[in-house]
Amino acid sequence: MRNTAKLTTAVLAASALTLGLTACGSDKDSGSLDANGPLIVAASPTPHAEILNFVKDKLAKKAGLDLEVKEFTDYIAPNTATEDGSVGANYFQNQPYLDDFNNKRGTHIVPVVTVHLEPLGLYSHKVKKADALKSGATVAVPNDAVNEARALKLLADNGLITLKDGAGNEATPRDITKNPKNLKFKEVEAAQTPRSLDDVDAAVVNGNYAISAGLKPAKDALVLESPKDNPYGNFLAVKKGNEKDPRVTKLAKLLTSPEVKKFIEDKYQGSVIPSF
């Protein structure tokens, strides 16, 4: 009887815990999925949250949109939070990155509208021109699959290396066929690339992290991505099935409005480029 009582107590406690966790999960999900509540959008601080906060402060009220902006400093949590319903949408990524993320993590995030491009750039504290990099120089590149491939393509497009045909969005240093300067590559988390500039000869940095670090891509980059036919535009994204949420459609319209275009052009001076 004593053992049975202990077992029954344990089962009841576990059941209560399970119910409690389920209730917490339901509360978490309901806030962002309730069409009558605010639309919570996950975003990188710069420039995504800045653009969203401009919309929130200047445009949302008139459009009847209750908007909340939640900042994240990494490239993983915004998608997982969108998938589990902690937030209703996110704004921080491009299509190749999302495709890779969905494929590897089994998430169901889809784009709604493309807003801007942040040109990827090569920066250095040691040289003023890319062709001034010395033989054997070390270049930091983002360590996630898509941004590393994008970084290598930038270097290839500017004649520093040659990639094998078909390397595409999965290129790694192993796909380099010609490396006349014998460059060495240091793979670091994307957010850490600006901080690595004192430790390496150059670094390829995503536009948002460059701006956050006080760099001016249009002025400071040794080489910079071209916006022409560029597949890396950043977009508003939601979990599949939520594309027609009235709040999402309102935000999509506001993010591609003339007011937002002017804000981006005036504030970022070519370091962030409107895609509409």
Automatic annotation (TrEMBL):
Keyword Signal: yes
Keywords: Lipoprotein, Membrane, Palmitate, Signal
Keyword field contains Lipoprotein: yes
CDD domains linked: PBP2_lipoprotein_Tp32
Chief subcellular location: membrane
Topology relative to the membrane: Lipid-anchor
InterPro entries tied to this protein: Lipoprotein_NlpA
Signal peptide region: 1-23
Locations listed in the record: Membrane
Transmembrane segments: none
Family: Belongs to the nlpA lipoprotein family.
Name of the protein in question: Lipoprotein
